[in-house]
Amino acid sequence: MGRVTGDGTVGKALEVLDQVAAFGRPVRFSELLAKSSFPKPTLYRFVQTLTNQQMLAYDPERQTYSPGVRLVRLAHAAWEQSTLAPVARPHIDVLSKAVGETVHLAQLDHAQVLYIDKRNAGQPVEMYSQAGKVGPAYCTGVGKVMLAFLDKETADTVIEQQSFHVFTAHTLDSADVLRAELEDIRQNGYGFDREEHEPGIICVAMPILTDTGRVLGALSVTSTTARTNLAGLEAFVPILKDTAAKITRDAQNWSFPDYSTKETTGI
Amino acid sequence: MGRVTGDGTVGKALEVLDQVAAFGRPVRFSELLAKSSFPKPTLYRFVQTLTNQQMLAYDPERQTYSPGVRLVRLAHAAWEQSTLAPVARPHIDVLSKAVGETVHLAQLDHAQVLYIDKRNAGQPVEMYSQAGKVGPAYCTGVGKVMLAFLDKETADTVIEQQSFHVFTAHTLDSADVLRAELEDIRQNGYGFDREEHEPGIICVAMPILTDTGRVLGALSVTSTTARTNLAGLEAFVPILKDTAAKITRDAQNWSFPDYSTKETTGI
DNA sequence: AAACTAAGTTTCAAATAATGAAACTAGTTT
DNA sequence: AAACTAGTTTCATTATTTGAAACTTAGTTT
After folding, report:
1. How do A215-224 and A201-209 pair as beta strands?
2. Where in chain A is the domain with CATH 3.30.450.40?
3. Each residue of A219-265: pLDDT tens digit?
4. Range(s) of chain B covered by CATH 3.30.450.40
5. CATH code at B8-68
6. Cβ-defined contact of B67 to A75 (cutoff 8 Å)
7. CA atoms of A242 and B95, how far apart (whole Å)
8. Nearest CB to A77: which of B13, B21, B49?
9. Residue A167 above 60 pLDDT?
10. Which CATH number is B76-253 given?
């Protein structure tokens, strides 16, 4: 660990913010200190500053810090402006209704899959997976199809960063096995998750590419082995391909209004 | 508008981030410069740093900046840990099914309403599209019920910061009118939005308070004048009160696991 | 109750990073 | 080709950050 930060004070403060978020629960100053490479007073001042700025929230009762609400506000702007979500939304709605299964929209963030939208079709079952959640790239459908269409150099960098942690009996557990799988995906134009991340959970995934072949993101339809199988999911390939094409089209035509009138919005 | 930042370099950088988000669309460096109080090279370096850090995203084609994806990841952690959303989720699900109308969960952030969850009666969960959105406090149901139960000092500060922009013929347009309305709300224990923000849109709102009366957030059921009226919405008061009470209870019992095992999660 | 311990907070001189006027570069328009 | 605009770099000055050490609580042990 202890990666070089660069970007001066601001970079260091953001590193602290990431560390707090990485805990996944409210965390005490001393716990943070134990994991941090910063000396005590330095870390202390960063935490104070971030708390003042509402980037962290302090619970005086438990004496713990967690990521603050200001992030929620900022992220809404990010989601609307810097992700595929607003462009893809209407198409995902249609897709979701047509297939009657859970649909995910994801992008690549560093070496991880970042889920940016989701539709629970049928029953709103189990997991509250939400926009903003991250997952591994090497063992998810969306992750693999995005990796498959990256340029070689980027792909190598990203593959190197995969943990290849074995989640199930089907998890691809090395770069070599993964590379072979990616070659297959390039041939087909789409990919599967064969219970590689969670037992019983399978999906078909389709990359969303620009006209020039650059990876924008990926779509997937998820189901369970109890309800269907890979052949069943493969039936969704045409509609997935169609949806991806529409998102590509709209993403390229996407242009932002050049007036800055405050929205009168209705929630 | 040239408010003092404090918190040194980090505070200034975050001010820049807010400014970018405030545009609500991708923005050029020069546009940002025109609105910013920082000299050109200073602003330039902040924007560079924030872009390096993925807090901003740069579109080289259009030469514009927008809030970056790193925020989406961080906000997920904030949403799960520093808001009422995870505690309220199951209760809102129940409420939403029972009332068959749109349900909102909000908190107060500075002087604004921050929506942290939403259920669209018809469709299943459609997250993040609305979580993170901010709205005015003086002319929304959730805003007013939260203001009504703040301690006097905080309330005064917050009321002072309201714009009292007139959205509709029913918008409360001054601090005095608002204060009278808040008194009413304190009497009743709940409040309405009588088309104050958008024509045709009405809601009942219920505060979520701790045992000691501190404001945690607010719930609302929204509908349209085409479908119902205030009397119709008032029928939801008992179930709203019940839901709020359950959220209060769970929020107080809420305790985080003290192990930090990485989640094996299933998306 | 004194001594010990751990967690959190403050101090302050030294080290470092941020600052911004001015100058420069690369496009665009007159 | 001159004038203008947007974006970028330079560098001496200035201000902020840094962290070892000391201090303050609050909790625990002897």
Report:
1. antiparallel
2. 83-253
3. 999 999 999 999 999 999 999 999 999 999 998 776 544 333 333 33
4. 76-253
5. 1.10.10.10
6. yes
7. 37
8. B21
9. yes
10. 3.30.450.40
CB B136 within 8 A of CB B113: yes
| Greatest mean pLDDT among A118-122, A255-259, B20-24, B241-245 | B241-245
Q: Which of residues 11-50 of B touch strand D (CB under 7 A)?
A: 28-30, 33, 40-41, 44
A15 has a chain B CB within 8 A of its CB? no
Contacting residues for A13 by C-beta, under 8 A, at least 6 apart: A46, A49, A50, B10
Q: Tell me the angle at which helices B8-23 and B40-52 cross, rounded to the nearest 10 degrees.
A: 80
Burial B224-233 (b: 16+ CB within 10 A, else e): eeeebeeeeb
CATH 3.100.10.20 fits A83-253, yes or no: no
Q: Give the angle A153-A157-A161 at the CA atoms, nearest 5°.
A: 160
Q: Which nucleotide is nearest to B49 (CA to C1')?
A: C18
**Cβ within 8 Å, pair A25-B81:** yes
Classified as helix, coil or strand, B205 is strand
DSSP secondary-structure letter at B261? Answer: P
Please state, in angstroms and as integers, the Cα–Cα distance from residue B14 to each residue in A8, A54, B6, B167, following that order.
14, 10, 11, 30
Residue B72 to residue B85: CA distance in whole angstroms: 16
CA of B187 vs chain A CAs: smallest distance (Å): 27
Amino acid B169: pLDDT: 96
Question: Where in the sequence of chain B do the CATH 1.10.10.10 domains occur?
Answer: 8-68
The dihedral of CA A75, A76, A81, A84: what is its sign? positive
**What's the CA gap between B33 and A46, in Å, rounded?**
27
For residue A189, give the nearest of A172, A170, A213 by alpha carbon.
A213
- Is the shortest CB-to-strand distance from B94 to strand D under 7 Å? no
Q: Does B81 touch chain A (CB under 8 A)?
A: yes
- Collapsing DSSP to helix, strand or coil, B110 comes out as coil
- Provide the pLDDT confidence category of residue A5 given band limits of 50, 70 and 90: low
Nearest 10 degrees: Cα torsion A76, A79, A82, A83 = 180
Tokens representing B257? 């696991």
Please tell me the distance in Å from A184's CA to the nearest CA on chain B: 24
Contact predicate A267/B135, CB 8 Å: yes
Q: Decide: helix, strand or coil at residue A167.
A: coil
Residue B78's contacts (CB-CB under 8 Å, 6 or more residues apart) are A21, A57, A66, A67, A68, A69, A71, A72, A75
pLDDT tier at A120 (50, 70, 90 boundaries)?
A: confident
Fold for A8-72, please state it. Arc Repressor Mutant, subunit A (1.10.10)
Cα–Cα dist A151/B236, whole Å: 56
Tell me which DSSP letter residue B190 carries: -
